[in-house]
Amino acid sequence: MSDSRLNELLFKVFEISSLIWLFREREDILNFFCEKVSELEDCAGIVLRDITGVYGRGVVDCIYLSTEPKTIKIIAAKNCNCKAKREHDYLLICPTPQVTAYVFIKGVPCEITLQILKEIFFILSRALDNLEAFINLEIAINQLKSNLEYFYYLSDRLRNPLTGILVATELKDEIETEKAFRVIRECGLRIEKILNEMKQLEISTRKTLDSGKRILLFKN
């Protein structure tokens, strides 16, 4: 590989690794990645197969796009019989935990090129992992806010039955004892119901906090 092409590839790695974290939509990340990799002089085309769909640049069709190998594969162009918009010599298939990447390469790729491409795919997979963690953390935070608002609502609901008990005890000499006890029992049942709801809310909040902790640990 010439120094100029190696520098181009290294610069592309730097560009992708610097900007890919800024996107907040999965489709935007994948389209950005395809666009940047397709700009490489040695790249005749790229396809990313993702859970949200297929993204690509410069490739119409290829029989190997339907395959999802467990390990990295390099296939000579004469064997793939694909319809690429630009001529290429090899097809690199690189599976990652998030996507399967297909890169159509012009010329014979050297070991350095392949290693750098692997690193780029690792960056992509990590960026998608990070986005998922961000979304899940945002969901957890919104759930905590919702739980806190509901907790305040339940706390406020306790005021009425507590006030009823206080009034019944203060007026015990003015109302019948049985009536006072009935008011206290009814208020007590309402308090018990509210406390049970608060207990369930506490359990839900603890689960959300644990989920948030796992997300933060994953991101770190």
From TrEMBL:
It comes from the Archaea. One of its GO terms (molecular function) is phosphorelay sensor kinase activity. InterPro entries: HisK_dim/P_dom (IPR003661). It holds the Pfam family HisKA. Residues 146-207 form the Signal transduction histidine kinase dimerisation/phosphoacceptor domain. This is Signal transduction histidine kinase dimerisation/phosphoacceptor domain-containing protein. It comes from Geoglobus ahangari.
